[in-house]
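Q: I'm a student working through a structural biology exercise. My instructor gave each of us a protein and asked us to get a predicted structure, then write a short paragraph describing it. Mine is ABC transporter substrate-binding protein. I'm not confident about reading structure output yet, so if you can add a plain explanation after the tokens, that would really help. Here is the sequence I was given:
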Amino acid sequence: MSSGSFAQRLAVKGALPRLTTGTADTINIGFVAPLTGPVQSWGLPGLNGCQIWADRIGRKGGLQLGGRRHNIRILPYDCRYDPKLAREGVRKLVQEHDVKLILSLGGDTLSAVMDYLTDRKILTATLLPSDLSPDTPYLIAPSELHPIYNVTGVDWLSRSRPEIRRVALCSQTDALGLPSLATYRAAFDAAGIEVVKEIRYDPDAADAGAIVAAMLADHPDMLCWCTSYTPMVHALTEAAHAAGFTGQLLSCTLDAYPRLVARTSRTFMEGFVFQFPDFDDPALAEKAFFFNRPKDFYDEYQRRFPDSWSAVSWEYAAILDIWHTAAERAGSVTSISVLAAMKQSGAVMHAFGPAAWWGAEIFGIDNALVGDWPVVRLTDGKARIVEFGSIPDWLAEHGPRLKAQMIELGQMWDQRQARAGSKTALARRSL
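A: Happy to help. First, here is the predicted structure for ABC transporter substrate-binding protein. I'll explain a few features afterward.
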């Protein structure tokens, strides 16, 4: 990405653009995510994708409501995955810019502002459905079912490589890492793969070399990085290479994988399994898709923002597309109307095909879209989809395993809210 780009200048300044808002023809959408720092690969590339989406909608004349066309403006705020900055950004977006939708990565930064957003009935989207609860009716997870889609990678490996019987895994101890750890535990249990080592680490103070050395002590067939942040995924992978590991590697994401291939070797990285495809993948060519032409989106992204593609480059844009369809159907951008339009048909065209609203069993509310999800494997240095795994099928058979692991790690919605000390719906019902 060019150092002089609009998005990056905003990221460095950590401030909103000075734009006049409130005009009848413009609808503002807030984007609160890490645009700088160690988690920026799950924020800034998503903003890039949103700019492509907004430009395309603009070329088509904008959002049509009641026979009138409206421009859509994306207003970014760099929260750097810091709850205090997230609070500042959300208040600025709501109070000064009258945003009709907020896009967020979620996790620890979203929990700091969710009561404020709920009180004001601001429709908010997260990439982490583990943020959902019955107390957050205007919070939705329509794009990414993190971390539950990770079960598809484990399931595929258990069938394609049945000789893998022992795994060592590691995860950071935060709102992204712990739900992921619970999901991988459940998936390995369902697949009959023994967890021989589990390491939980502080994301701010972790020694990748020491973690990998401890994981290798029990001679696993597979190493799993869970949902570690991109810099840690790279550090762990390079440490495994330096240690001479030759077994299977598994991770939720593998952003900037060409750099890892260059730093290790194509042979070492061969067969690495993760969950996020490149959009020039031939397996996506015939998919019913939010842009209809995913390769065109990928090519435009690479042209405008080279060397910055990540797991989230398309995800926020996919949310925007679902929101756009619902808003035009409702003839309104109010949260209640858009949400009702999203739910009215009972099913939504998700990025990888039809999906249904789900989540009450784990999150206390059916505000997450669940459908198929791709399993991706590095083949000769290039990410390639090997299968679209069915998350609903896995949940139908193994859902209780997932719930048990979520409970054990304190990741159920009521457990999280009890720790936060908020007056949850559960507490109110017990009065």
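A: Here are two points you could use in your paragraph. Confidence is low (pLDDT under 50) at residues 1-24, 422-431. The first helix runs from residue 6 to 13. It's a good idea to check both against the output above yourself.
Q: Great, thank you!
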